[in-house]
Amino acid sequence: MDCHPEAQADARIVMLIDDEPAQARLITAIAARDGWRTIVAPDAETAIAMLGTREGMQLSAILLDQWVPGDDACALITELKARRPALPILMLTTSASPLLAVEAMRAGASDYLVKPVSPDRLMEALRSVTTRAAQRDELAPLTEKMPANLDFDAMIGTAPQFRAALAQAAKAARGHGHVLIEGESGTGKEMLMRAMHAASPRAKEPLRLINLASVPPGSVESVLFGHEPGSFPGAFDRQIGAFQHCDGGTLIIDEIDRLTAVVQQRLNEALDSGIIRPVGASYGFRVDVRLLVTSNVALDRLVAGGQFDAALAAKLGATRIKLPPLRERTGDIPALTRHFLARIGEQPGLNHLSISDSALALLAAYDWPGNVRQLQSVLFRAAVYCEGNTLTAESFPQLSEMLGGQAPSSAPTAHEGVGIMLYTEDGNLRPLEEIEADVIRLAIGHYRGRMTEVARRLGIGRSTLYRKLSDLGIDNAA
Fold this sequence. Notes:
Strand order of the largest sheet: 2-1-3-4-5
Largest sheet: 5 strands, parallel
Shape: globular
Distance between the termini: 62 Å
CATH class of the largest domain: Alpha Beta
Strand content: 5-15%
Structural class: alpha/beta
CATH topology of the largest domain: Rossmann fold
C-alpha cells in the first residue's frame, strides 16, 4: 500500500517489508523527511508480488525486517536479489549476531541494521546504498559492529597525537572530573570513553550511554532528568532519568553538541548545584555522576558562534581530549588492519585472513572520511566476500577504482608514521628540545602513563624524567 500518496511522483521509493504497523508508520515518517516515499508489504509473498507493479519497478531500495520471514530471511533476500539483482536490500533485526550479518550479506544484503535504529543511521544507510555505483560498496559504513573491547590495549596506534590523547585519557580515567572528547565521527570517541570508565574508580558503578543522535530533541530533557506523570502530553507514567540511574557512576553523552539551548541551560544548572529535577517535578535530589561527553565538532567553535553555552562548555571541557582523524595517522593503518582482521577472524562464519602488501598500500592511500570505524567496516565486508586466505588489492575494487594509479607500490613499514618530525617546513632541523619532547610524549602514550616503564625504556632515571617533563612543559599527557 502507498503510505504517502501526497509525495511527489519523482520521490525515491523504498519498500518496507514489515508486519508491525507502528514501526511501519515510524520508518515511513523518518524516510519522508529525506524525500523518500514508502510502500509497505506485510509479508514475503506480498513483497515479491509488489516487485512487478508500477511502483515496484521504480524502487530504489528495500528495507526488510528480519522478524517477518524469521529463519527464512536469507532465503527471501536471495529470492529478491535473483529477481532484482541491482536493488539494494537492508535488513533490520534485533539480533546483534555477527553470524547473521555474514549470512545476510552473503545472501545479498547491502547492510545490516540492529534495532532500534536511530533516524540518522537509517538515513545514512539508505543514502550509502543508493548513491551512484554504491551497490556492494565496500566503503559504505556498516551499522552492525563487532563487540568493542573496553580497555586501552584495544586502542591501536603509535602516532604522537594519538598516543598523547591516550596518555591524557589514561590519566583522566583515574580521577572523577568530567571529560570532553572531541574528534570526527568514527575516530573512536565512544570506545575511548568506555575504556576510561573501565579504568576508573567508578568501574563497578552504574554506566549508561546516551547517543543524542538517536533521541528525538523533544525527549532529551526527559531522558536525562526523568519526568513526572502529566508533565507533558503523553507522559502517563513516571520516568527515571539517566542521571538518577547513574548515581555514583558514569554517564556517557555522545554528540553533546546536539543539545538544545534549553537543555544546555538545565544541564549547566544541574552541574552547578549537583541537584537533578525531573520535568514537571516540584522536588529535586542530589546525585553524584561523572560525565564523559563527546562532540564531533569543536565546542569552542560552537561557543564562539553562540550555539553552545560557554559556562557549560567550560565545565564539560575541564579535561579536553582531541582524537586525530585517521588521515593524520596513516602509519597506524597496517597495525589497525591486522588488529581488525584478527578480531574479524574470531567471528562466527568468518576465517582468519592475512593481507598482502599491495592491499595495505591501497588502504594507506585512502583518506578515510569515516575514520577507524569505516576501515573496520571495509575490512569486515572484504572478509565476508573473500574466498581465499588473503586479502589483496582486488578485494577492494571500488577503492582501487577511486584511487586509480595513485596508490603507492608498497605498504608503509612498521617505522613509518611514528610521527616524530625531524625537519621544519623550510627544510631545517627542528631544535633538539622539541624532538626530545615529542619522543617523551610518544613514550608516555605508548606505555600508557606508566612512568617507571617510560623512564626505563628511555634509559633515564625516574627523577630525570620528571625534571625533563617540567623543563619541557609536558604537563597534560603524563
